[in-house]
Structure formats: C-alpha cells, structure tokens
Amino acid sequence: MERPVSKRIVIGLAGNPNAGKTTLFNELTGGHQHVGNYPGVTVERKEGLRQYNGYDLHIVDLPGTYSLTAYSAEELVARDFVVDEQPDVVIDVVDASNLERNLYLTTQFLELEQPLVVALNMMDVVENEGKRIDYDLLAGLLGVPAVPVVAAKRKGLEELLETVIQVAEERRRPRRHLTYGPELEEHLQEIAHALASVVDLGTLSPHWVAVKLLEGDAVVRKHLGDRIGADHALFGLVDRARLHINEVVGDDAEIALADRRYGFISGAVREAMRQGTRSRRDWSDAVDRYVVSRVLGLPIFVLLMWAMFEMVFRLGAPPMGWIETGFTALGQAVSQALPVGDLRSLLVDGVISGVGGVLVFVPNIALLFLAISLFEDSGYMARAAFVVDRIMHRVGLHGKSFIPMLVGFGCNVPAVMATRTLSETRDRIVTILVVPLMSCGARLPVYILLAGAFFPASAAGKVIFSIYALGVVLAMVMAWLFRSVLLKGPTTPFVMELPPYRMPTVKGVAIHVWERAWMYVKKAGTVILAFAVVMWFLMSYPRPEASDLVGLTQQQVGAVTLEHSFAGRVGKTIEPVMRPLGFDWQTTVALIAGLGAKEVFVSTLATAYSLGGGEKAGSDLREALRTDPHFSPLTAYTLMVFILLYIPCMSSVVVIWRETGTWKWAAFTVAYTCVLAWTVAFVVHSLGLFLGLR
Ligand code: GDP
Ligand code: MG
Questions:
Q1: Reading across the β-sheet that carries 146-148, which strands appear in turn?
Q2: Contact 651/694 with Cβ under 8 angstroms?
Q3: Which protein residue's CA is at the shortest distance from atom 25 of ligand 1?
Q4: Element containing residue 439 per DSSP (H, E)
C-alpha cells in the first residue's frame, strides 16, 4: 500500500536551561532520537523525528541558553542554527513560572524575525502559585503564538504541534513588536537602511543585523566585513552611532538595548499576568502604583506637561530679553552706521529683525528640550505612554503611535519617519496624518511671541499649554474620524514598555539640549535667513510712485510701500478669506510666508513691522504688536490656533509624501489641515466675539 508523501518540517527547540526542553523533546519524539555534535564545537546536537497528521516533524534540540550573543559556544550554536539552517519554525520553550527571566531569550528570537512559537511550559506550577497568564494577550503582545503546555504531563502538546504546523505552512514571521525607543531606533533604522543598500542579506532581517552591529557583536561584524570589506563606510556609521548612544544614554549600546528588552518584557508581563502577588516590589513599582494608576495617571501627566510649559515660558523670559536687547542695539548701530537706502533696510528690517526675531527664542527651545529629555531619560515618558495608551486605543490609534507623536513635539519630520516602527499600514497612515497636529518646536516662538504680547506673564504659560493640548485633543478626534471613515480595521496589540526609572545623566541631557538648540540656530542662520531676505524683497518691491508719497510722514511712507509691494498685494487679495478669523492682510502675508517653515511667520512679521514702522525700526516686536489696532488678545489666540493647525511646513509635507509613497496622502494632509485650521479658528474667534471678548 502506498503512503502519501509526508511533508517535512524542520523545528528548532530552544529555551533557557531547565525550562523543560529535554522533557518536551522526549515527549514529542519518543525513542526516535539521534545524538551527534555540532560541527567544530563540542556541543551536543540531538535530533528526533515525530510523525503527525501527515507531517514529518524533524526536531532539533538546541543548547539551553539565556541569550543569543556571540559570547558562548552554546549561544552561537543556537543562533547559527536559526540563521544558517533556516528551520521552518523555532519552538521557544519558556518556563512560565519564571516568565520575566525566560522571555529575554524570546525577545532575541523575535529580533531574528523568523517563524516562532512560544511554548509556555510549567503551567501546572503557575496554577499552583495561584497565578494566571492571559496567554492570548501575551501572544498578541509578543506578536507570535503562545501555547500553554505541561511537558511533564503531556498536556497541550497536540495544540502545540497544530500551531507549529500552521505557522510553518504560512511561513509566518513575527511582526516587529519590540522597538528600542526613539534614540536607539533612529540609529537602527539608519544602519538597517544602509545595510539593505550595501549587501543582500537574503532572509535575514536587516534590523537584526543592525541590532547586532550596535551591540558590537564581533561575529556578525566579521561575517559582514568578509563580504563588504572590514573598512567599509557602514562600520564607520555603526561606530559613530555607538559613540553617540554612549554619550547620550550614558551606557554602552549593548546595555541600552538590553534595557529596552527588559522594559518590553516587564510591560508585557505586567499586562498578561493576572492575579497573583508579585514577588518583588521595589521602589520603582511603588512609584508606578501612582504614576501609571488608572485614577492618578492622567492628572499627573497633565500636571507635568503644564509645569513644563510654565517653566519654558517663565525661565525663558529673562535670557530672551537679553538677546532681544542685543538685536535691538545691533539694529540701531547698523541704522546709524549706514545711509538710508536699500542696503540698510535689507540689513535692519530683513536680516536683523527677521533672523533676530527668531533667534530670541533659543532659550525657550533649549528649555523645552531640557524638559523633554529629562522626562525621556528618567523613564517617565514610557509611563506617559502607558497612561495614554487606553485613550489612544479608544480612538483607534496604535499604542506605538505615541512615540512618533512625542517626537512630533520636537519636529514633525523625524516624527513621520518614526512611524516606520508601525507594521500595519493603516496604523501608520493614521499616525502620519495626525502627527502634524503635534505642535513642533518651530511653532513655539509664535506662541511665546503672541502669548507674551497679549497675556499677562501669569497666564502665558497656561495659554501655551492650552494650544498644545488643543493639538493633542484634535489629533485624537481626527484619528478617530479617519479610523471610522477612511482607514477602518482593528488595531494590533503591542507591549507598553516599562523600563526601570533611572537618573538622567547631565551629559546625556546636555547633549540632547545642545543638539536641538544648535539645530534651531543653524536653521535661523540658513533657511530662515534666506526666507527673511526673500520676504524683505517681496515686501519692499515694487515701490509706489514717488508722487503718492508726497506729504506723508516717514511711518506712513513705510505703510504705503508695504501695501504696494508684491507681498502686500497677495495679502490684500487673500485677506477676505481670513477676515472672518479677525486677521488683517499683514498677518495673512506672514501666514503664507510661514508655509515654508513656521518660524518664518515670526521673522516676516518682524520685517513687516520694521519696514512699516519707519522711525521705530528695530524696536520690540511684542510692543509693536500690542500697539497695532488690528490685534487683540482674541485675535492673538485665534492666530495661535490657526498656526498650530494649518499646513505643517514644506519639509513635513515632503516627508509625508516620501514615507507614504504617494503624493495623495501629502495633498490630503495639506487639504485637511487647512480646512481644520480655518474651521477651528473661526469657531474660536466667533465664540470669543460672542462672549464679548476682543
Ligand atoms: P531542560 O534543561 O530545558 O532540558 O529542562 P528539563 O527537560 O531537563 O527539565 C527540567 C526540570 O523541569 C525537570 O526536573 C523536569 O522534570 C521538570 N519539568 C519539565 N517540564 C515540566 C512541567 O511542565 N511541569 C513541571 N512541574 N515540571 C516540569
Ligand atoms: Mg536538557
């Protein structure tokens, strides 16, 4: 009688020592075993065969290990087996009564992104201890199937085999649920990207190779060096990244990566472990009882954010005043040194007012990033993510969207790129669409300027906080809307990481602050400078007829010239659209200029007042705004709302285009943000008028 040809499935059996691997292996294969050695090393290689439902299951017992580094022969053997022999599935045997410790190895297999099934062994012990594991949830969080078994009592083995066969048939690779946080992930993505363009890795995950290179794994580095040359530029990139991480995090990349894995595990176990008393409760757990609690978590978060903006505004005010005085003095000095004419106007009204108007906010930018990096480095940001996760879920945002959105407070461009960690396209696009509503650093100068000019110092911090909060709330509303109309579908579960609290290092924080502040200064000296010059030209030409200026004061001459210029005409043309919001044509010009980069709104306004101000050239911009009859606290607030919401800058639009792969999402973002900005600003303005504000 002829038997149908069985399908062969190669299975690697891995796990920590004493997780029950041998027991499981014996139960699965019975007597059909073969013992040999791995080539070149004295590590025993046991293989066995099991026939099941028309499949030949070829099971290889891997050495018991806690990790997959290159430090020991056992770990290398286990890793090389997966990398070189490409088994159809790896079964990771986990001692479920020791879940946190055992999952570390699991994270290493997850990184390899090869088909994986977790066997949660020793479930009898777990039950005896009165604990319960929500294994479906755990499986969802890890992104791979998790099957409860009791190897010693042959319980759950059939289900395990069924699952293994299913995964093998589908060649189902784990989705990357484990990410390493913005700092590390940025480097990893960069290295993985570079790798993919340099060498064909086959089925090997570039992200895994990048992790290993960052860890300083000598074996992976040597292998790669043999293929592309040991002095390839890629290794320079890796070494620089390692150095940078070391400086910023204050630890070796290897430790930083391990920390994130532990954070991932700790978050997963916290969510999946039901009941039962946790054995250890260190102070970090004690703090977390309040910080991530259902009741207090959100208020604590809001309070901290509010305190942050108070600090940014109040501590930033004095140094801002010094810089302002400096630029005013510089403007006056140049005014006195040069004769009246285009050159003087370009330098004083265009360059000094424009760029100076932006540079005065350096202290605020530095303070904002000081606060953000303190939150991030101490481990609080991870808690904040944990707290808002429930809300994010409700509106259909993936929990992992939190990091890109957080990055968005700095700059929307890297924030859009950071959505790469989201594996589901829908999750990714929704996140990209709402990231522009996160108020980036470039918008802060506008708020500080307007809040400082029109609100008392005691209220300015709260005003700015309310704008940021409005952005976040609208992001939630829009995400929910996009999710229910454009991009329907379930969200994928993921682990909220809870890395241990740690003391931020002075050096790490200093580097973050310095990098951001320097980036801002560089931008002011390049992009903003260029825009300031262009805007000065557009606001100065064409000149009005000399006959039109007869008999006017110098200040009136300035005003007429501005109105007659290109920019003035464009502003006047569009003004009717903006009038319902309470904006005059000068503001409209500045808003259009701000499309390039939002700081340009400030520099353009500075140039406009400097040009139009005649004798007052170079004087305080806030003072000029305050005395402008077109402005009131209500218009100022409406303007802040509009600037928060309308089209993110050109660079963001381009990066959205690039990251979504189609101009349509970029165009959609431009369109919807314009509509949203106008609508919300209109509502705010009308409501203000209705309430009798002005
Ligand atoms: P290995 O080091 O991973 O190969 O682990 P072993 O298979 O040698 O198992 C270690 C110990 O755990 C042995 O004493 C086993 O009898 C025991 N063991 C294995 N599976 C289970 C299980 O499901 N429940 C319980 N209670 N003990 C188990
Ligand atoms: Mg064993």
A1: 33-37, 44-52, 55-61, 7-15, 89-95, 116-121, 146-148
A2: no
A3: 122
A4: none
3-class secondary structure, 26: helix
How confident is the model over 38-61, as pLDDT tens digits?
Answer: 666 566 788 899 999 999 999 999
**In angstroms, what is the span from residue 29 Cα to ligand 1's centroid?**
16
Within its chain, how far is the Cα of 359 from the centroid?
26
276 has pLDDT over 70? no
Q: Which of 397, 455, 386, 390 is nearest to 626 (CA)?
A: 455
Which residues fall within 8 angstroms of residue 566, CB to CB, at 6 or more apart?
Answer: 538, 539, 541, 542
Q: Which helix (H) or strand (E) holds 23?
A: helix 21-29
| Burial of residue 249, with CB atoms counted within 10 A of its CB: 0-12 exposed, 13-18 middle, 19 or more buried | buried
User: Which uninterrupted H or E stretch holds 12?
Assistant: strand 7-15
Please state the atom number of ligand 1 nearest to the C-alpha of residue 61. Answer: 4
Whole-number Å distance, alpha carbon 24 to ligand 1 midpoint, is 8
pLDDT value of residue 311 = 86
Q: Is the peptide bond before 206 cis (omega within 30 degrees of 0)?
A: no
- pLDDT tier at 87 (50, 70, 90 boundaries)? very high
Q: pLDDT for 99-145, tens place per residue? A: 988 999 999 999 999 999 999 999 998 988 888 899 999 999 999 99
Describe the chain by its helix, strand, coil percentages, rounded to 5.
70, 5, 25
d(CA 438, CA 428): 16
Q: Is 148 exposed, middle or buried (0-12, 13-18, 19+ CB in 10 A)?
A: buried
334-343 per-position pLDDT tens digit: 888 888 888 8
Residues touching ligand 1 (Cβ under 6 Å) are: 15, 17-23, 64, 121-122, 124-125, 150-152
Q: In this structure, which amino acid lies at residue 113?
A: E
Ligand approaching nearest to the C-alpha of 46: 2
Task: Evaluate the CA torsion angle 661, 667, 668, 669 in order and state its sign.
Answer: positive
Residue 40 Cα to chain centre, angstroms: 45
> Distance (Å, rounded) from C-alpha 2 to C-alpha 615?
104
CB-side neighbour CA atoms (13 Å) of 557 = 13
CA distances from 600 to 301, 540, 607 (A): 32, 17, 10
Name the strand (E) or helix (H) holding 329: helix 317-337
Crossing angle for the helix pair 233-249 and 506-523, to the nearest 10 degrees: 120
Give me the amino acid identity at 108.
Q
| CA 363 – CA 355 distance, rounded (Å) | 15
51: helix, coil or strand?
strand
Report the Cα–Cα distance between both ends of the chain, in Å, rounded.
Answer: 95
Rounded alpha-carbon distances, angstroms, from residue 43 to 58, 62, 67: 19, 9, 16
For the beta carbon of residue 351, count every other beta carbon within 10 angstroms: 19
Ligand in nearest proximity to the CA of 14: 1
Ligand nearest to the CA of 25: 1
User: How high is the pLDDT of residue 158?
Assistant: 95
Probe target for ligand 1 pocket from 13, 16, 18, with the most ligand atoms within 8 Å of CB: 18
